[in-house]
Write a structure and sequence with these properties.
The complex is a heterodimer of chains A (about 220) and B (about 180).
Chain A (H helix, E strand, L loop, with lengths): L2 H6 L15 H6 L4 H27 L1 H7 L3 H23 L1 H7 L10 H9 L6 H30 L2 E5 L2 E4 L1 H7 L10 H32 L1
Antiparallel strand pairs in A: 1-2
Helix pairs in contact in A: 3-5, 3-7, 3-8, 5-6, 5-7, 8-10
Chain B lengths: L2 H40 L11 E7 L5 E9 L5 E11 L4 E9 L4 E8 L35 H21 L7
Antiparallel strand pairs in B: 1-2, 2-3, 3-4, 4-5
The chains are: A mainly alpha (about 220), B alpha+beta (about 180).
């Protein structure tokens, strides 16, 4: 597997949210606006890339590997928790409004299965560079999935797209033109589950079709 | 060596490193965080005065409708320049919480309804309504202009003013029994 494939697999083939269905809790709760989704994505990116690098660094030396192996899960958790706490403190200090809207879901990144999963399944037996690239791909894939959900929810629920702070795209003229109100439901948990369900179904449909095509190609050859 | 002991030591070392790292980051972010929190708390007062120009002392009152007095003192002379009173009175269905700023010349420098849960459309006008109290000298309430249609909310606002005025007449600007 080359570096490019390693990076791109996080987007579609092994997308953490839509294929592995990991980290769904913050995905349902924080996707009320695109800004929140991006903020969550940035936090996950930082933690995932650094934790992957640190874990693979720790596991690459043979002596350390022997020491850490019996207690590797607690070790991973301590590393991840440290990184998450740093992210939380920095966000509290410099992006206060984002810190408030993400709320409890920042500290909950510690128990996000994507990060622990990548540490155990990938970083622990791969090189540092590979692990970092894998972390970037996974985190960006997760962010893309979150933004996709947030786009659907914000446009249908509020008629706006908030990119960051005041950078907001107002699409309410469409609703005015149609003489209808935005569906408030989509900003609520109901909308989160519906959006997630439909996007998940769409993603599965696409990948299954692709797999069938590949399988056919093999047969004909 | 005992395997359990080794594992324990590994975790202990890791914990110490993490703790040290967090302490370093905390030393950078903690002042910014406390600064932010202060800014949010004083954002309302900033509407009347620029806080950076004054020395601020906070007096917390335990009884009565006025709960906090923010006394603004001149930075060099230490004289009281103004005081902002945080006061609340019960209106029609909720507490109407106000900030009232009194200048050292005993005039109302500004006021703002910062919190209320009154009837939407009627009592909620109190947030934007001009009660004609700017520049009024304590303790006159003659110029007070009620909101037509929401007498009880207006009365709460009026009571807020008279609470502050009675404190000012009794103890001076920024003064209190404590």
């Amino acid at each position: 597997m080359n570096q490019r494939e390693n990076f791109l697999k996080g987007f579609v083939k092994e997308n953490p949210l839509f294929i592995s269905v990991l980290g769904t809790c913050p995905a349902l709760a924080t996707t009320t606006s695109v800004e929140n989704a991006i903020g969550m994505g940035v936090a996950v990116f930082f933690v995932l890339v650094l934790s992957n690098m640190l874990v693979s660094l720790l596991m690459s030396s043979k002596a350390l590997r022997e020491l850490v192996k019996p207690v590797r899960i607690p070790v991973y958790i301590v590393i991840i928790a440290t990184l998450v706490t740093i992210v939380e403190m920095v966000m509290h200090a410099y992006t206060y409004s984002l810190y408030q809207s993400l709320g409890v879901f920042i500290p909950l990144i510690v128990v996000n299965c994507i990060i622990l999963g990548r540490a155990e399944a990938f970083a622990s037996d791969h090189k540092v560079i590979d692990s970092a690239v894998d972390g970037m791909g996974m985190a960006l894939g997760y962010t893309a999935a979150l933004v996709a959900m947030a786009l659907v929810r914000e446009v249908l629920g509020k008629g706006t797209i908030t990119f960051w702070g005041d950078a907001q795209l107002n699409l309410n003229f469409i609703y005015d033109f149609l003489h209808v109100q935005p569906l408030d439901m989509f900003t609520k948990p109901v909308g989160a589950f519906l959006t997630f369900g439909f996007l998940l179904a769409g993603m599965v449909a696409i990948t299954t079709k692709k797999q069938n095509k590949e399988a056919k190609g093999v047969k004909q050859a | 060596m005992n395997k359990g002991l080794v594992s324990g030591l590994v975790l202990l070392t890791l914990g110490l490193i993490s703790g040290l790292l967090l302490a370093v980051v905390n030393s950078f972010t903690a002042p910014v965080i406390s600064e932010n929190e202060k800014l949010i708390k004083y954002a309302a007062i900033e509407e009347f005065y620029t806080l950076a120009d004054y020395d601020l002392t906070e007096i917390t009152l335990t009884s009565g409708p006025v709960d906090t007095i923010f006394v603004l003192k001149d930075k060099t002379t230490g004289n009281v320049e103004a005081a902002v009173y945080s006061v609340k009175e019960y209106g029609y269905q909720s507490y109407v919480k106000m900030l009232i700023a009194i200048d050292k010349s005993n005039t109302v420098a500004g006021y703002k309804v910062v919190e209320q849960g009154e009837t939407a459309g009627l009592g909620t006008q109190s947030v934007t309504h001009d009660f004609q109290m700017n520049g009024v000298t304590v303790p006159s309430l003659d110029s007070f202009d009620s909101i037509s249609g929401s007498t009880i909310t207006s009365n709460a606002v009026k009571a807020c003013f008279s609470d502050v005025f009675s404190l000012v007449t009794q103890y001076g600007v920024g003064g209190s029994a404590q």
